[in-house]
# Entry
Amino acid sequence: MVFEVEEIVGPFELCHCSKCRKSTGSAYAAMIGVSSKGYKITSGLELIESFTLPVEEKAPGYTTYFCSRCGSKTPNPKPDNEWFEIPAGLFDCELPNSPDRHIYVDHAPEWEMFYPDLPRYTKLELRKKRKM
# Structure
């Protein structure tokens, strides 16, 4: 699936809500706001499937989109608002801005907040370290 976006409008959020954590299998979902105007899927539309989690507390429910061939997340194929969010990891290009904020931090797992100073490695550095 390939898509195009003309305008990234933000925000660029790291969402710790339980729905985002479950859908990514991680501590948060990195989501960036884009304008619906100028957004289009250029190939692979027929491969996009969706799953809607029923409303638990109050509307709306939660819908996630994914590729039926590889299982990776995809953007909403037919957004109905002026702007919507796309998982930041789906962009193959450099993004023009960094995350603006963490949201729903009251839902963050304990282990995620306690390690802000862990070392960071590039792919090459990690390969070298693992060979030692």
Notes: Residues 2-131 form a domain with the Metal Binding Protein, Guanine Nucleotide Exchange Factor; Chain A fold (CATH 2.170.150.70). The CA atoms of residues 12 and 32 lie 4 Å apart. The beta strands are 2-4, 8-15, 29-35, 40-43, 48-53, 62-67, 83-87, 101-103.
